[in-house]
Amino acid sequence: MFLNHIWLIPLFPAFGAAIMFFFGRRLQKTTVNAVCVGAVVVAFLFACLAVVQYTHFAHGTGQPFEKIVYTWLGSGDSGMSFVKKDGNAAQFNADWGFLLDPLSAIWLLFVTGVGMLIHIYSTGYMAHEGGYYRFFGYLNLFMFAMLTLVLANNYILLFVGWEGVGLCSYLLIGFYFHRKSASDAANKAFIVNRIGDAGFILGALTLVWYLGSFRFTDINPLLRSGHYLNGDPILTIAAILLFIGATGKSAQLPLYVWLPDAMEGPTPVSALIHAATMVTAGVYMVARSNAVFVLAPTAMKVVAIIGALTAIFAASIGLVQNDIKRVLAYSTVSQLGYMFLALGVGAFTAGVFHVFTHAFFKALLFLGSGSVIHAMSGEQDMKFMGDLRGRISTTYKTMLVGMLAIAGIPPLAGFFSKDEILWQAFRSANGTFPYLWLIGFVTALMTAFYMGRLIFLTFFGQPRMSHDVEHHIHESPKSMTGPLVILAICSVFAGFLSVPHSLGGSETFAKFLAPVFEKGPAVAQAEEPAQLAAGEKEKEEPTQPIEYGLMALSVLAAIVGLGLAYRSYARAGKGYAEPIEATAPPLYNALFHKWYVDEGYDYVFTGRRKLGDVRLGVMGAGEASSWFDAHVIDGAVNGAGWSTKAAGIFSSWWDKWIIDGIGVNGPAILARMLSYPARLFEWGLVQWYALVMTVSLIGFAVYYVWK
Amino acid sequence: MEPIATIHYLVVAAALFVLGVVGVLTRRNVVIILMSIELILNAVNLNLVAFSRMWGTLHGQVFSIFIVVDAAAEAAVGLGILIAFFRNKETINVDEIDLLKW
Known about the structure:
The structure holds two protein chains of two kinds.
Chain A: H1 8-23, H2 29-58, E1 65-73, E2 81-83, E3 89-91, E4 94-100, H3 102-125, H4 132-151, H5 155-173, H6 180-211, H7 216-224, H8 233-249, H9 258-261, H10 267-276, H11 280-288, H12 290-294, H13 297-318, H14 324-344, H15 348-375, H16 393-407, H17 413-428, H18 435-459, H19 467-471, H20 478-493, H21 508-513, H22 521-533, H23 544-569, H24 579-583, H25 585-592, H26 597-606, E5 610-611, E6 614-615, H27 617-674, H28 676-679, H29 686-706
Helix pairs in contact in A: 1-2, 1-4, 2-3, 2-4, 3-4, 3-10, 3-15, 3-20, 4-5, 5-6, 6-8, 8-11, 8-13, 10-15, 11-14, 11-15, 13-14, 13-18, 14-15, 14-17, 14-18, 15-16, 15-17, 15-20, 16-18, 16-20, 17-18, 17-23, 18-23, 26-27
Chain B: H1 6-26, H2 30-55, H3 59-89
Helix pairs in contact in B: 1-2, 2-3
């Protein structure tokens, strides 16, 4: 029953958002709470029951449950047919359909669960803020969009949810829209996201042109049937385009720049959208398209490399940031890099598991930082914190759990998921030097360091805040600390869902997910030689020493990182020194200024900064073109006009003086001059003419008589 | 006395002719010039009639009638020109009619 009405799940928060839109202004805070938080709680319970029913339905086969409610675009045999690449006709179908399989079940559970906890937290955090109903309306709208994304059964409905979460991200980052920095950050988030969306749409359209359908249940069997070969160029292009979309949404290089600025929004927003749910949408989409990626090894390499580079790049910036939320933002970008690294080397279940555990401890860390900021009367700079562990002990204890989880200390959740990724990255090298593993390993060390730095600067050392702030320090209300405790418990125990075989576990999580990522015959054939060469096919035991060794190395790296952080920051007084600044000031400057990437983008793309007087990049090209048009092309046009006018003037002078003067008047003057003598005889006297006539007549007569 | 022969008529006609020509060439008054033209024509008439008597045919006399008609028409046209000219210039002195000079 719950499974059949799975389409209701996104509609509960949509209903909440609609109520807020129409009536929110007039409602009391308690009513807003009841409607919005209640909607998400109901969605969570509904989701739990639906997943339970699904497990009965699927009996462990991972068979997806699909429910098409309404065919939105192109129903039946109406005129939405087009020609596929191979020349056959196909229907352009996009329906309002829902798909529940192990992948979407996992996402559904943690999105509604963590979302529910964050909604409860927000009732406490936003209690004294204006626009309370607006905040919850937007949060519910976001839940609706995210759930649509996760439950969609085709690329188009997924894109609807994709755009919806982007919109809600814009609305929520710019929640304090009176602040220019907030509205700028909201614009940046939406615009950079949009660039990725172009890639996503192109990828989805390439797939439909090549394969004939948008539905996952149509595409996956088709791709796994063996009809399409490994390394298919069109699938590679489609996969890379889809990954560009994921780059924008999940903040990878080069489109990650919006996420640190997104910290302008209220802290619950950062926790929900930019830690646990929206940014994982890219990972979800790539995991959902695993059939496409698996047939395109080049694309997988691209994913893995970008993931690894993003991880280490963002971790390096996070080492020196002073704003507590910015450190967590760069940490999110870095951890997302880990997830894509996992997907790129083919360890899909490891990547998804990391998403799952990361949702818990990152949301915990963000909500905890919100509690710290609340206690510090709005101060976010860690330079002015210190010695809070006695004063806000619940927040301290939960954040400590979160920090240990993200650093990868066993037996907390982060250890199992991160370690699995590093192990899979090491294995994928297959004999060559494991660069990806090395990058992941160094990043793990950096992660431990900066997270330790965060905790030690905030909670340990000397109090570095002003006296007014110090007097106001108080623990947060139960509505805020409750979710913190719950998330801390999850961070501790979630890891046990997928303990690897080498440690004696049963890998329940991975087994639950495995049917989603099964490979077709073409890929299995391609992988056989590689597996035989590595001697892995039938034997698992000989690899265990390497696995244990790597595990031990990771734990060692985490402990070393925490130790270094403790040495530098745990006793930090008012003028504490940053170790990186002390040893290598240029490196510190570069890291503090985020490797000048934003400035670089300003030079190259947005054109907001100029080199002297010259604008570079795309906008510079525009400016150059406009200068060229105004001066050269219009100059040519003006020149043509001027030369026509000059020709006209010359032509009129020629006509007046040469043609008329010499050509026409000349003969006339000549005639007049020549006829002058002849005119002298014309006196006008008639009698004179008569005399001349008579004399001539007499002359003729005499002449003839004399003849 | 000898009888009047043809030659006498011819001499009279010649004298009249010369008088007419001199009048045309010399006189200032346009009306007198027109009268002199009539004299010339009449002299010619006399000549023609004399020769007609001499040869005994009527050719001369017939042609003389033609010339009379012609003289009449010419007088009419000439007087018309005179009147048109007088309206323009208020004079009948032929020396003052010199508009067609260069």
